[in-house]
Structures are given as C-alpha cells and as structure tokens.
Design a protein that fits this description.
Its EC number is 2.4.2.21. Belongs to the CobT family. This protein is of the alpha/beta class. The protein has helices at residues 15-23, 34-46, 78-88, 92-101, 142-161, 177-188, 192-195, 204-221, 227-234, 237-251, 261-273, 290-298, 315-333, 337-340, and strands at residues 57-63, 104-111, 122-124, 166-172, 255-258, 281-285, 303-305. It has a seven-stranded parallel sheet, sandwiched between helices. Helix 11 (261-273) links the parallel strand 5 and strand 6. The longest helix has 20 residues, at 142-161. 52% of the residues are buried.
Length: 354
C-alpha cells in the first residue's frame, strides 16, 4: 500500500522579478541576509511580488505511544493529555507564544490515550488511543496510518477554505522522539545512534538503551522502499497527521512552518512521499535534539533561529513567525532607493553593493 499526492511547483518564473524588488530596497544588497531569502521564497510560493500572510494557525498535534512501555522516556505518559488541557486553556509555552505572535492555536487529538470533552480549540482527529508498541508489533495498521494522513489533510484543507494560508506545526506526545528517531534512521539510512537523543531527559545510559531498543525494532520489522509502509511500522499518529497536513498545505500553496525534531520527522516522511513539499516549508529553529540538525541538512534547509530550544509544542514555529512576517513586510513596505531618493553619486547607480 502506498500514499501519493500532487503538489504544484513554486512560481520560479518570478524569481528574477522578486529578487530585483528586494535588491532595490534602500540597503546594501544581501544585508538582511536570511530575511531576504525568506521573502523571496514566500513570493515564489504565492506567485506574487506582494505576498500576504493570512490568518495564521498553529496546529499542535498530540498522540500517545506505547513504545514507552520499553522505558524510552523518563516521563509518565499522562503528561500528554494533561498538557493538552493546559494548551486548550492558553497555558504552556505554545499557549503563550501563539497569543504573543498572532496564531490561532488549535490542539489536534490524533491519538491521545484520554477522552477529552468538546472544546472550541480542540480538533478531534483521534484514530486510536496511542500507537502500538513497535518494539513488538507495527505501530499502526495500514488503515490507521492512512486515516491519520487523511485527517491531517482534512484539517489543513478546512483551514485553507476558511482563509488561512500560513500553518505552523507543533506536537505533544510523551515518547515521540522514539518514532521520530526510527523514521529518521530508516528513511535516511543514518545509523540509529546518530538519530537518537535524550528526548525529555534521558541519561547517557538511557539514550544508549533507547538506541538499542529502536535498533532491534527496525531489525524486527525491516525497512521498506515505501515511505508509507515505514510510517505505519515505526511512526506516531501525530507524526502521520502532521505529514498529511504538510502535504495538503503544499498542495494548496500554503506557507508551512516546522518546529523541532518531531515535526521535522513528519516533514521528512512527507518529503519521501513528494519531495516538492520542502519548497513550501520553513525550518523555524535548530533544536537541541542531536538528530534535528542532520534532518534539516538532509532536507536542504536552514534554521531561522537557534535559541537552544528543545520544548516542542510548536514554540519554535511561533517565535520564528515574527521573522517570517517581518521578511514579507520588508518585501512589501520597505522603501526603495528611488522612493527614499538615495543614490550612489559616484556612479549614479541606485543600488549600493554590500
């Protein structure tokens, strides 16, 4: 069984025009560094010299993981549902930062081992109460994995239909660095030891044991040439839901903002389904989880921020949005040399080289 989706190419025919507009701003060429790159990319995504960011939404997608039975996390799994309730009440890092940076926060229950009461900010996309212990059996059936992917697509499609063209992704799920690490290893071919980190606080010995458990799980189930099959064997319901959401966002030419290790593993899955998805994605920050930088590099990306974050939830996505928003504002509103009447009188050239 496989999963496919069509994604349009970005509007590369506008690259010269957008770059020219950036270069004509009243500044040395290239002096705003990565902000110029961000502005160009968003212009190419939207096919516009005056792109707009509309109704940004933060999707913090949550699920539990029965691989925790093997001791891969030092934290109790009950924290997953407790934190989800905290987020719904505006608490936690993501509750605060979503409000501060202008996101409409939605918590997506993809597979939390808890029965939530209805809430206006809660999206019920539960497939089952946590993935299975993939040390013993595949994490999901094909039907469950497909359902999670399609749930993610529907959530993002509904947002886009309501006017949203920016979606940030975060996650909540005790133990979810284990499926993220396993997916990174099987998809990229990197050794599992390269992909595994302390997660929410494992000791060096705990990290070593975690790597051994994941290595044995990979040996048990094997590595498929089909990314969907690998996702079903080793993934998490939140990872699958995010991957589906990212693919749908790219298909709709939306701006995608990833958070840390877990959401980037979802992008990695999406990339193996359709590589064009990365043309629509921004890497918000450099996580302290050791595999994250290698994943970003593998995907040809560049982190916008490096603040020592390792919280997850979408916090990096929210904070980096201030830079993304500023980049678009620069493209649209910063004065040009002509408007500012600034000239290089030595050669009458309105562009000042850096």
């Amino acid at each position: 069984m496989s999963f496919t989706i069509e994604i349009p190419s970005i509007h590369s025919e506008l690259e010269e025009q957008i770059q020219y507009k950036i270069d004509q701003k009243a500044k040395p060429i290239g002096s705003l560094g990565q902000m110029e790159e961000i502005a160009l990319k968003i212009g190419l995504i939207q096919g516009s010299l005056t792109p707009e960011l509309k109704k940004p939404v933060m999707l913090t997608v949550a699920s539990d993981h029965h691989i925790c039975e093997e001791g891969v996390s030092p934290c109790p799994t009950e924290i997953t549902w407790q934190q989800c309730l905290n987020f719904l009440n505006g608490g936690g890092g993501i509750g605060l930062f979503s409000q501060e940076y202008g996101f409409d926060l939605r918590v997506v229950d993809a597979g939390v081992d808890y029965d939530f009461k209805p809430h206006p900010k809660l999206i019920d996309a539960k497939v089952r109460k946590g993935t299975r212990n993939f040390y013993k059996e595949p994490a999901m059936t094909h039907e469950e994995c497909l359902k999670a992917l399609e749930n993610g697509r529907k959530v993002v499609a509904d947002l886009n239909e309501s006017g949203t063209n920016v979606v940030g992704f975060g996650e909540m799920g005790i133990g979810n660095t284990s499926p993220a690490s396993a997916l990174m290893s099987v998809l990229t071919g990197m050794d599992i030891e390269t992909c595994v980190g302390p997660g929410s606080g494992l000791s060096k010995e705990g990290v070593r044991q975690k790597a051994q458990i994941l290595k044995q799980a990979i040996e048990k189930h094997g590595i498929s040439a089909d990314p969907f099959e690998n996702l079903a064997r080793f993934g998490g319901l939140e990872i699958a839901t995010i991957a589906g959401g990212m693919l749908e966002a790219a298909a709709r030419r939306m701006v995608i903002i990833t958070d840390g290790f877990i959401t980037t593993s979802a992008l990695l899955v999406a990339y193996f389904i359709n590589p064009k998805v990365v043309d629509y994605a921004f890497f918000s920050h450099q996580s302290q989880e050791q595999g994250h930088q290698k994943m970003v590099e593998y995907l040809g990306g560049k982190a916008i921020l490096d603040l020592g974050f390792r919280l997850g939830e979408g916090t990096g996505s929210a904070v980096a949005y201030s830079v993304i928003k500023g980049s678009v504002t620069m493209l649209n509103k910063m004065t040009s040399f002509d408007e500012a009447a600034v000239y290089n009188t030595a050669n009458d050239d309105i562009r000042i080289e850096a």
